[in-house]
Design a protein that fits this description.
Nucleotidyltransferase, domain 5, 3-stranded antiparallel sheet, about 450 residues, about 40% helix, 4 domains, 5-stranded mixed sheet, globular
């Protein structure tokens, strides 16, 4: 249990800090308990450099309580208890080897997706030249650096194959996405380390896909990647989204299994085989895919978006108000996203930016609606009038609030499922959606630290 003075954060300097008890300091967030809540078990999350979540909690839950500022000044805090500086200091007097410099440069370029030409930038070369290296620092040009990356990639691939040779069971994932009208297939592998029993992961591929994303193209690419790493007989299942092309690929290329009733050879029935299937060229290629599992996160997303949307529109009691409320929200989002003046107007009135839903980012519609219902009705009316839009009525505003309250458990579950690491929640912990970080960015880099 961390004490309140262990970190000299904005929370420790806050004038209302004495109304909260610090529970845990976790990376860039703090978990605290509110002393004013009757239950005393409500755990809130706030960033180490912002107390906005806690301020909202005091305003909403304890509006009738007269708050008094903490009399303890910032200067009385012990300097010795301050955490390490957030910005690390560069030590240019430290002597490192040329190999360490090359590896650090490669990791910087790969993880930050910088162009290879970065190594030829005058400013970058000047920075690298300041590092003290035994025998003098040797700078790599673009061609030399490209060759170095190819060698390191081959080395990394070889080490990964060696690791897979000692495994009996492994699971993979596959996904296709498009950026700037260019499609890519990404695959990852997940397994349990037999020595430590810890879950481990690695990227298998991030390659460009040309042409249409048909089921046969997807099946051939997945099978090729499994063969490349010698995983064809070790993969217990491959997880994908609910796309029809992925579903059909695994349905068409599943290995045939014999039932127990056929073992005795009795009561055999005549089986007719389609000649077209026998002559199909894809069958001759010998593509065999492992069992298929549909992503639980994507399934929950379909429930929270498509299924809920269909139910609201099919129910006469909610159809009208749902359409009118979402139409006014959509008009507001459209105006703010297209006009810089409208965006500035919202920022000046409520000191926040409106979130615009994105079809490729899960929970985005909920997050956008939740941001709107945080704004007081008077401010929403002012914004709509200034932008010459229809105002959201009180009944529609109440509907949106109830929608967020009902959908919140699904969105919290999605954030947990999509996290890189999952930790079981504390007993009676209250999840704060605003404090939940977006960890849905795929991590396809195996570069050693």
């Amino acid at each position: 249990m961390a004490s309140q003075g262990e970190s000299k954060t904005s929370f420790s300097k806050w004038k209302y800090v004495h109304y909260f008890t610090l529970v845990e300091h976790k990376d860039k967030n703090l978990l605290v308990k509110c002393k004013l809540c009757l239950s005393g078990s409500k755990v809130l999350s706030t960033a180490i450099n912002s107390n906005s979540n806690l301020s909202k909690h005091l305003q909403k839950r304890h509006a009738s309580t007269k708050l008094e500022a903490n009399p303890v000044s910032v200067d009385t805090l012990e300097v010795s208890q301050a955490p390490p500086a957030k910005q690390q200091r560069l030590d240019f007097n430290r002597t490192v080897s040329q190999g360490q410099i090359n590896k650090a440069i490669a990791r910087y370029v790969v993880e930050n997706m910088q162009p290879v030409s970065t190594v030829e930038s005058p400013a970058f070369r000047q920075l690298v030249s300041m590092i003290t290296c035994s025998g003098g620092t040797q700078q790599m040009g673009r061609k030399t650096f490209s060759n170095y990356l190819d060698k390191e990639y081959s080395k990394m691939e070889s080490e990964l194959k060696t690791t897979f040779e000692g495994l009996d069971y492994i699971a993979t994932t596959a996904d296709i996405w498009s950026v700037h009208n260019i499609s890519f297939l990404g695959m990852t592998a997940h397994w349990i380390n037999t020595a430590t029993l810890q879950r481990q992961k690695a990227a298998l591929a991030c390659k460009r896909i040309k042409g249409r994303h048909t089921y046969d193209v997807i099946a051939a690419e997945i099978d090729h990647i499994h063969l490349l790493y010698g995983l064809s007989t070790k993969v217990t299942a491959t997880v994908t989204d609910n796309g029809s092309n992925f579903v059909k690929a695994f349905q068409m290329y599943q290995p045939e299994s014999l039932s127990d009733d056929d073992d005795d050879g009795e009561n055999e029935e005549v089986t007719f085989t389609n000649v077209a299937d026998v002559l199909d060229t894809s069958t001759e290629e010998g593509i065999v895919l492992p069992p298929h599992l549909r992503c639980a996160s994507h399934t929950l997303n379909l429930i929270s978006c498509s299924d809920v949307d269909k139910w609201l529109l099919s129910n006469p009691g909610t159809k009208g108000i749902y359409r009118s409320a979402t139409a006014k929200c959509t008009a507001l989002w459209s105006k703010v996203s297209r006009s810089t003046l409208a965006s500035k107007l919202v920022g000046d009135l409520v000191s926040k930016k409106l979130l615009v839903p994105c079809s490729t980012r899960w929970n985005s519609f909920y997050d956008a609606v939740a941001r709107i219902v945080e704004i007081p009705m008077t401010d929403l009316s002012t914004i709509s009038n200034r932008l010459e839009l229809k105002c959201i009525g009180e009944r529609e505003f109440q509907f949106l609030r109830e929608y967020c309250a009902i959908m919140k458990p699904l969105t919290v579950a999605l954030d947990i499922l999509q996290g890189e690491e999952w930790h079981p929640p504390a007993h009676n912990r209250s999840f704060d959606v605003e404090a939940t970080g977006d960890k849905r960015r795929p991590d396809y880099c195996n570069w050693p630290t």
